[in-house]
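Notebook, bench 3.
Goal today: get a predicted structure for Carnitine dehydratase from Bordetella genomosp. 12 so we can plan the truncation constructs. The sequence was checked against the plasmid map this morning, with no discrepancies at the termini. Length recorded as 386 residues. Pasting the sequence as submitted so the record is complete.
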Amino acid sequence: MNASALPQGALAGCRVIDLSRVLGGPYCTQMLADHGADVLKIEPPDGDETRGWGPPFADGVAGGSASYFAGVNRNKRGITLNLARPEGRAFLLGLLADADVVVENFKPGTMEKWGLGYERLKADFPRLIHCRVSGFGGDGPLGGLPGYDACAQAMCGLMSVNGERDGPPTRVGLPVVDMVTGLNAASAILLALYERERSGLGQFLDITLYDCAISLLHPHAANYFYGGQVPQRSGNAHPNIAPYETFATAAGEIFLAVGNNRQFAGLCETLGAPELASDPRFADNAARLTHRPALREALSGLLRAHQAAELAERLLKHGVPAAAVQDVAEVLDHPHTHHRGMVLEDASYRGIASPIKLSRTPASLRRAPPAKGEANAELGVPPEAA
């Protein structure tokens, strides 16, 4: 890939020092890098541990970099620094002198132990934006404790509302807390960069998995605040809307997400049963919720005569939200996925593209994920610092 031939992104000229590892921080900094920021990923001598989270390995070689690492570290330059040594910390301070943002997800207190805490950095670099991603923050009853995605899902109520009604609490099948924490960290950085245009000053951004997990509890928290009942698991069914769940068809499963009476009437018409829309039991959403078992039985009988993919397309064209349930391979191969440019491919690199589409300054693929320490020589990292 020829980075010099690509259009500059919206964050061109912004320099980010990425001290983070695993997922939340790297997901944040990849988003910034996709949009033109110069992100320098700094790893410990042994590398980001996700390099070993395989198979599969991105280069097909056991002991190389795992696909997990490749998925969240493109468009970055990479060096290794041993921050436990004074030489490594001194080199980092030199990098921070020209940086706009530093992102780290060390256990709170680690940067302070190294003499690199926010108060020190603020004094030396008043324009620097310091973003810390942590499990619980640095203070409070859980302050300073390590945080992990699955533990946050368990602790913060996400597992309690995920799973079948009569089944056990279930982890969401992707690291949703880590990823939304990365998204919130990126949003916070952009807010701080915008504010710095007025004040000329950086600030400290305190982003935690705990807070971000709790922020995902809609509509369950709102239902609890105003209804007083502790939310329970409901499988694929929505607690507030019906029909809003999966149904079996003659070929595959379909998800119906019918949010109003007009959509419900369109569903019934498409299924050849317009009389359902005028049935008093299903007259409005409240009635449909009350009579959900009867509604499900009626719809299930009608849907067994259809194929999920074909019916979903017809329903969408009729203004009724519906989707066939697809696996990962199917969605990555879908024509609309390719039309939207959501799969990046260059030489041996394949990845999910940025979903943020800007008309003049689009995201682009500039660099494949870096090999460990590949820019050490380019940036002049002395052996004693690496």
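Residues 184 and 207 are 7 Å apart (CA to CA). The radius of gyration is 25 Å.
Flagging this for group meeting.
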